[in-house]
């Protein structure tokens, strides 16, 4: 069983309009609403590929109810902690002609300290109750959460003996590594921004000096780098890169890491899955989706190599 | 007591962003949410100027709950009929620098015939229960409502002996006049579009041939034309036109008509109020707002004249 934590879950709303005109008035021709946030996307990919998963995190108010209801409809188990106020929305305005998106991200309501304390308590309780093998912490934090929220969550989850994967950026990532999560998954830009190092191997070493253990770097068309604390760096990529929708590719990659850690797979197997799962996500129109037949087909096209 | 009906009530959401960039990703720096729709704005203006009013119309789902809660917070009594599905939202993206708005209007969920039947039943019951003196029907209809919904509502309200004001446009207006509402309030463009006549007096005569009674035309800086079925056409305007935010000026004008009809005021008094109330709304940043001191001050600046 895998638990994913989406501290700042959102209702992702997509508006389709004929053409977006700045300062114009638009009749929205279609509206779709889905529970969103990186941890929810990770959970959705895991479920589609046959893994048992529970969604944790925070949701509140009527929008929180819509998030919970969408998870129900999609068959994703959830145990969300109430936040104070109404969950945030993202509004994604898509031009019908071109498919191009213009995105508006709400910050969500500021939270008192009690919300974070409740989340920690709920996650630890859930992890014990479902005997989780891995916990995934993904995405941004609600306003008002402590900057080291992920470090504190990692510590609490470690106390009950469960490994943790962190997918975060900026200060949230830099502070999280102090608690030694088993895997962190920055992309190339996030790693460079957190460390000032453009070379991923050097960047990973810099984060390891702060406490990081295994570092997995998503590098777009350059594939996935697995940089374990124990050495044996690997790069995996498709023989021929795919083009498509990169949104959600990182979440599918994290899903593969979680499944691999839960299943005790080798680093080489994990990094192959990571490439295949994220490539399968690129072929889908929305985040949190993969087609299992794409995954099977793409696995055979992954090439791995040792790097130094 | 006045009853306003907002068949297609919305939650009006305003996002402030630094600058709107087409196909960009925006962090929304502030989010405000208010119950919206023309009838709700009419009610809000009436309440601010000391008139008793109840909001009727349709709302449903979690967004409907937010609409109801905002009306509670604003101290506006309401008796909204449940619609099937979740009430629509409008998203208004405002550039922080310029104040310019880009608007996205959801259509809202399509309604079965039973929703309209329930609205008619609820409005008639409410009108009798609160002994309404005037009913106001304002704005668009939910998808799936009969095109002659306003005509049917007018007929039912007339059966219990209460006069009706209709503020609508297009086919909704053209069909509504067949039921002889006491006042219709098109703006110049709506009147021209409904009748093909650019002269308001000729246009009003064309609508009267279809069943209209008194016609009040809002003509922006040209003021307000009162074109009664019994004759005695009046024009009223400010000695010096104001500049500001025209959104909601029409709703404040309708509020003045409703208050005038309820209070048995003369046409000259009503048209003076209509100008002052709508001018006071122009001075406010959002629809459904007036400052009573502005109204008092502006009343003295209204000039009326007879027209033929």
UniProtKB/TrEMBL annotation, chains A, B:
Pfam family for this entry, one: PfkB
InterPro entries xref list: Carboh/pur_kinase_PfkB_CS, PfkB_dom, Ribo/fructo_kinase, Ribokinase-like, Tagatose/fructose_Pkinase
Domain of life: Bacteria
EC class of the enzyme, as a word: transferase
Record key words, sorted: ATP-binding, Kinase, Nucleotide-binding, Transferase
GO terms for MF: ATP binding; phosphofructokinase activity
Keyword Ribosomal protein part of the UniProt annotation: no
EC numbers for this chain: 2.7.1.-
Gene Ontology CC: cytosol
Domain Carbohydrate kinase PfkB residues, every copy: 12-292
PROSITE patterns the record matches: PFKB_KINASES_1, PFKB_KINASES_2
Listed SUPFAM superfamilies: Ribokinase-like
Family recorded in the similarity comment: Belongs to the carbohydrate kinase PfkB family.
Protein name: Hexose kinase
């Amino acid at each position: 069983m895998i638990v994913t934590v989406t501290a700042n879950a959102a209702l992702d709303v997509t508006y389709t309009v004929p053409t977006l005109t700045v300062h114009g008035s638009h009749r929205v021709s279609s509206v779709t609403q889905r529970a969103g946030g990186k941890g929810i996307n990770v959970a959705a990919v895991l479920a589609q590929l046959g893994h048992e998963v529970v969604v944790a995190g925070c949701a509140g108010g009527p929008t929180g109810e819509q998030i919970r209801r969408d998870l129900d409809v999609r068959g994703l188990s959830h145990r969300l902690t109430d936040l104070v106020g109404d969950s945030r929305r993202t509004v994604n305005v898509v031009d019908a002609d071109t498919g191009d998106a213009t995105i508006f991200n709400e910050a969500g309501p500021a939270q008192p300290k009690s919300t974070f304390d409740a989340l920690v308590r709920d996650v630890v309780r859930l992890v014990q109750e479902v005997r989780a093998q891995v916990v995934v912490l993904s995405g941004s934090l609600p306003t008002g959460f402590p900057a080291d929220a992920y470090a504190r969550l990692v510590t609490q989850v470690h106390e009950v003996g469960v490994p943790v994967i962190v997918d975060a950026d900026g200060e949230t990532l830099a502070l999280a590594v102090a608690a030694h999560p088993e895997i962190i998954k920055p992309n190339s830009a996030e790693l460079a921004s957190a460390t000032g190092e453009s070379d991923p191997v050097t960047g990973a070493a810099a984060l390891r000096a702060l406490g990081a253990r295994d570092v997995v770097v998503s590098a777009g068309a350059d594939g996935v780098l697995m940089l374990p604390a124990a050495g044996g760096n690997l790069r995996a990529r498709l023989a021929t890169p795919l083009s498509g929708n990169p949104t959600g590719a990182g979440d599918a990659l994290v899903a593969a890491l979680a499944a691999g850690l839960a299943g005790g797979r080798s680093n080489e197997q994990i990094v192959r899955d990571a490439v295949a799962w994220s490539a399968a996500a690129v072929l889908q129109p929305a985040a949190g989706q993969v087609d299992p037949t794409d995954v099977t087909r793409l696995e055979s096209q992954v090439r791995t190599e040792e790097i130094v």
